[in-house]
Amino acid sequence: MKFRYAMVCSSNQNRSMEAHSLLKRHGFDVSSYGTGAHVKLPGPSLREPNVYDFGTPYKQMFDDLRRKDPELYKRNGILPMLKRNSGVKLAPQRWQDNAADGSFSVVFTFEEKVFDMVLEDLHNRDHVLLKSVLVINLEVKDNHEEAAVGGQLTLELCQKIEAVESWEDSIDEIITAFEAKHRRKLVYSISFY
Length: 193
Hints:
Elements: E1 4-9, H1 15-25, E2 29-34, E3 39-41, E4 50-52, H2 58-68, H3 70-75, H4 78-88, E5 106-109, H5 112-124, E6 132-138, H6 144-162, H7 167-182, E7 186-192
């Protein structure tokens, strides 16, 4: 693989981890992150989410929720999701706190608010490497079914990007063809490290 990829959603749980897991199985150099202040998972009601700090191991969240209400969290898909996540990496990581992970060639976000936060973070960093990074937003609803679809679409886009010599020369054509094929609008921008 020629390029390094980052998958970013709000809590580094569902959308970014679905794409991370799928790309990893296909041999991509991929990492994943969240941009939120905390990791939030659905709770017994909308007003009672389960909130964890970034860096809390997925296994610890799994054990905590299984202890609280195993039927609820199995039924809503949270326990299987956490089990998948713990097979991919130890814990959710926050994008803004992981600049030391190195530079990425392509960053995918799955929500416009997250896209804006990633770009703002990149623009506020010292640009010492002067290396370009492509940031693409593929809007994906935060549910398990849409995350699976989003993961497949992300894989397809990454395969198209890998197939070219330089994404800088081909990205407009890749995006236009993808949008026409899938009838989904992408937003993208170029920033620097």
